[in-house]
Design brief:
The complex is a heterodimer of chains A (about 475) and B (about 425). Chain A has about 475 residues and is mainly α. Chain A is built from 23 helices and four strands. Chain A has four domains: about 110 residues, no CATH class; about 110 residues, Cytochrome c-like domain (Cytochrome Bc1 Complex, Chain D, domain 2, Orthogonal Bundle); about 90 residues, Cytochrome Bc1 Complex, Chain D, domain 2 (Orthogonal Bundle); about 110 residues, Cytochrome Bc1 Complex, Chain D, domain 2. Chain B has about 425 residues and is mainly α. Classes of the chains: A mainly alpha (about 475), B mainly alpha (about 425).
């Protein structure tokens, strides 16, 4: 018995030793080491002589990581993706291939996961690509990676990503803010979309959802907007880009990309043409701006925009409070602006408007901006399905004046209204008119009413 | 060579182990082994009587201590970093994943073993006079073990940790009057946040382990003083039963007064206190039952240690410790569950917050503590303890059933869902 026990003890000790060796072996042979070895073999092929080959092959295996404090993440992707910044690897097989077209987005500053998704901290393929349990943010497929541009470039055009611009335009014009909050603005019938991109819904889900909301999300009150496939994709891009993550100063400073398009917009907005001319077209009070970018350095122009008097003592040009990217954009626009541009800008200026026109136009803008169009339609036609409401849909607003006085309409906008039910014992209709008095000023509400009244069709006259 | 021998002798200071004197001195002269007697009865080592559960629990604690100290080198008790440190342990630290797994599985193992140990002590009647208070110490050790496991649960700062602790501390807050304040004291705020993480960390690595070590010393010392490990008394002759039960327990009226058998002899203090001469004559048949602790007891303990270590290592190699998403206070999993050993409580709470969350667990603890004083039946024989065994078995079974129901049969909204039914879209 005693001898047997000692034998078992000995056997168990050996087993413990074996287990430690197994654990050490497991720790010593991670897959990234294999990938690094393969990469150095690939790299050694390009070396001219045996000594250089040996030197490359002797590179010790180590974990590479980008510490991205501004983005609050650590990306270890380059532990395996070693050729990302090496142009000679442009035809190499994955995971070693060169990443073309990065532009200013160098891995040292941006890492990988901010655009691609995945788990930056991980060092094995499955976990790193985020296709594991409890990592809600897997790699985005090729079709959707560009949506990530919108995480930093939150406004304006993003070159090469027309989907984002279109998605943002649709969001503003189709009445989405009527039900959805975004950055604190908007209704509360639908979910808050401020951090929607961080909710990690699959792009596929989002896209199907935009095509048929209540098929994908059962019981959803969201009307079917009959979006085209392209529009659904554009909105999906926009949703994926929405994040409430704190992006750090460096990244959020490029909220707007300083392109010529944005420069032109500013040129119009700031009424530069009132004083300046381009190639003789425009006002002669200020200087001709054609070729100004060629005459002066970028730094000089920038300084001029910050503080004109410092450059030209006695200059009558006001100091515009423009942020750095806006100044860059203006300079970018000016470096290519011609007399044709000036002509176009002048000819597109709206005619002088009467105060009534202005109020009605402003009301129309409000009607779109605050999302009224989401239910009532861009042409006030209504028609969005609303089960168990009288008529089964949101009513048209084109014949309001038949049933209501203007004061009654103002009251409805202020206090909201629950639609009368078809079947009083049935479920409440999913859509209702929210109370707007806490969101809109009286001025806004009056303008909207003015706009509605300007559109009334006289049904009584028609018979 | 002489010098080497001299150095060795200066360290061990005992005769060679092949001699009985050496075997005795090994225990007498060694502060760590001194908790053992030099000789033990064979019955003390009987596996089927104790299953070595106390030893195994102690060894699991040793594993937890060593792996825990190693883990402390990589851990910062501050919200986002804490989670990142877990990821670093999983993906970057050499053998970090293995280390974390060992700590995790040993912790669960300790909760299980300490409970099984308690059951064993109850079923063998080993809490009876003179060991009543050691049972109380043991119950406190069980509570400390649960506290250690519970505080450790929060440290990874993932969804599992965050919501288990949120649910767990909410259960505590149902206590009338002080519940809310207790919870606030524990969390350092109204919700689980960075203050809570720091407090749990301090409790987990400093306060609770210190208390556990101190009480373990008391626990083991008392086992030794009360006649050593439990052994199957009912197999002994009736005549011996009485003396065995009273060993180490002075009669209630005992004064520090010698009752000299021989007036010409001088008695030492120890003999006066215990009421027995140190050189007690031992009957030959009693002597036959005993063996030297070295190697008989030591080899068995070493075997238990190795079995525990290899089991934990094997499990840790096969299964990683779980780690979910970063804790997100805005996203409640449905259902949010407490750690498994509190799921019985959560199940009770789901029926009645006050009764299930406060009254029932308080009664349970009080009942456990009171067992040795309430149970006046001196017999340790199974056949003579039907009521006690029945009641305790009921307690164990009810607890197990509640935990199993809470763990496997509760789905979204705490609705009764069998484990083989997959609930779709619970999180969406």
């Amino acid at each position: 018995m005693e001898r047997r026990l000692q034998q078992i003890f000995f056997a168990l000790s050996l087993l413990a030793l074996a287990l430690i060796v197994a654990a050490a072996w497991q720790a010593n042979t991670p897959s990234w080491k294999t990938y690094q070895h393969k990469f150095y073999e690939l790299e050694a092929q390009g070396e001219p002589n045996a000594v250089a080959k040996a030197a490359v092959l002797a590179t010790p295996p180590e974990i590479h990581q980008q510490l991205l404090t501004g983005l609050q993440r650590v990306d270890r992707c380059t532990t395996c993706h070693l050729g990302v910044e090496d142009p000679t690897m442009k035809d190499a097989p994955e995971p070693f291939r060169y990443h073309a077209g990065l532009g200013p987005h160098v891995p040292a500053r941006f890492g990988c996961t901010i655009c691609h998704g995945g788990q930056g901290l991980a060092t094995d393929e499955e976990s790193a690509h985020g296709k594991v349990d409890f990592w809600p943010n897997p790699l985005l497929t090729k079709d959707y990676i560009r949506a990530s541009c919108g995480r930093c470039h939150k406004e304006g055009d993003v070159p090469g990503v027309p989907e984002l611009t279109e998605g943002r335009r649709l969001f503003e014009t189709q009445g989405c803010p009527g039900c959805h909050k975004l950055n604190g603005v908007g209704g509360s019938i639908g979910p808050d979309l401020t951090g929607e991109g961080a909710n990690h819904r699959s792009p596929d889900w989002l896209e199907r959802h935009f095509l048929a909301p209540n098929v994908v999300s059962t019981g959803s009150a969201m009307p079917n907007f009959h979006f085209s496939k392209d529009q659904a994709r554009a909105l999906t891009y926009y949703m994926l880009s929405l994040t409430s993550e704190d992006m750090g100063t460096y990244y959020s400073s490029v909220r707007l990309i300083p392109g010529p398009e944005f420069g032109r917009q500013l040129f119009v907005e700031k009424n530069c043409i009132t004083c300046h001319n381009i190639g003789g077209v425009g006002s002669k009070t200020g200087t001709d701006l054609q070729g100004v970018a060629q005459k002066h350095s970028i730094e000089w122009l920038d300084e001029q925009l910050v503080n004109p008097e410092l450059v030209y003592p006695g200059s009558s040009m006001p100091a515009y409070d423009l942020e750095a990217n806006a100044r860059k954009a203006l300079v970018a626009f000016l470096s290519s602006a011609t007399a044709d541009d000036a002509q176009a800008i002048i000819s597109r200026r709206p005619r002088p408007l009467t105060p009534e026109d202005v109020a009605i136009e402003a009301g129309k803008q409000d009607f779109a901006r605050f999302g009224c169009v989401g239910c009532h339609g861009t042409e006030l036609q209504g028609g969005v399905a609303n089960p168990n409401a009288q008529g089964g849909e949101v009513p048209s607003l084109l014949h309001l004046s038949d049933d209501y006085t203007k004061d009654e309409v103002l009251a409805i906008i202020r206090n909201g209204r629950v639609p009368p039910m078809d079947n009083p014992n049935g479920a409440a209709p999913p859509l209702y008119m929210p109370a707007w008095k806490k969101v809109l000023s009286d001025e806004d509400i009056n303008r909207i009413a003015d706009y509605l009244w300007s559109k009334q069709q006289q049904k009584k006259d028609s018979w | 060579m002489n010098l080497i021998r001299e150095i060795w002798q200066s360290i061990v200071r005992r005769d060679r182990l092949s001699t009985d004197k050496g075997k005795s001195e090994l225990v007498f002269l060694n502060v760590w082994l001194h908790i053992h007697p030099a000789k033990v009865k064979r019955e003390h080592m009987k596996f089927s009587h104790t299953f070595y559960l106390g030893f195994i629990t102690f060894f699991l604690f040793l594993i937890l201590l060593t792996t825990g100290i190693a883990l402390m080198c990589y851990y910062r008790p501050y919200p986002p970093q804490a989670y990142q440190d877990m990821k670093d342990l999983e993906f970057v630290v050499y053998m970090g994943s293995f280390l974390r797994a060992m700590h995790r599985w040993a912790a669960h193992g300790m909760v299980v073993c300490v409970f099984l140990h308690m059951c064993r002590v109850f079923y063998t009647g080993s809490y009876k006079k003179p060991r009543q208070f050691n049972w109380v110490v043991g119950v406190v050790l069980l509570l400390l073990t649960l506290g250690l496991s519970f505080t450790g649960y929060l440290l990874p700062w993932d969804q599992l940790a965050y919501w288990a602790i949120t649910v767990g501390t909410n259960i505590g807050s149902y206590a009338p009057l002080v519940g809310g304040q207790l919870r606030e004291l524990l969390l350092g705020g109204h919700t689980v946040g960075e203050a809570a993480l720091l407090r749990f960390y301090v409790l987990h690595v400093a306060v609770l382990p210190s208390l556990l070590i101190l009480l373990t010393i008391v626990h083991l010392w008392r086992v030794r003083k009360d006649g050593g490990l439990s052994r199957p008394v009912w197999k002994l002759k009736e005549s011996k039963l009485e003396t065995l039960v009273t060993i180490g327990a002075p009669a209630e009226t005992a004064a520090l007064q010698a009752q000299p058998a021989v007036t010409s002899k001088t008695y030492g203090l120890m003999e006066v206190v215990t009421g027995k001469p140190i050189f007690e004559t031992v009957t030959p048949e009693e002597e036959e039952d005993t063996v030297f602790s070295y190697p008989y007891a030591f080899v068995r303990e070493a075997l238990a240690l190795m079995a525990t270590v290899t089991a934990i290592m094997t499990i840790s190699l096969l299964f990683r410790a779980p780690l979910e998403e970063l804790a997100n206070p805005a996203k409640t999993p449905n259902p949010a569950k407490a750690p498994w050993y509190f799921l019985g409580l959560q199940e009770l709470v789901s029926h009645s917050a006050l009764l299930g969350g406060v009254v029932a667990p308080a009664l349970m603890v009080v009942a456990l503590l009171a067992i040795p004083y309430f149970d006046r039946n001196p017999s340790r024989q199974l056949t003579q303890r039907k009521w006690a065994l029945g009641l305790f078995t009921l307690f164990v079974v009810v607890n197990l059933v509640l935990i199993v129901v809470g763990t496997f049969f509760r789905g979204p909204g705490w609705a009764l869902v069998p484990p083989w039914v997959h609930v779709v879209g619970g999180a969406e």
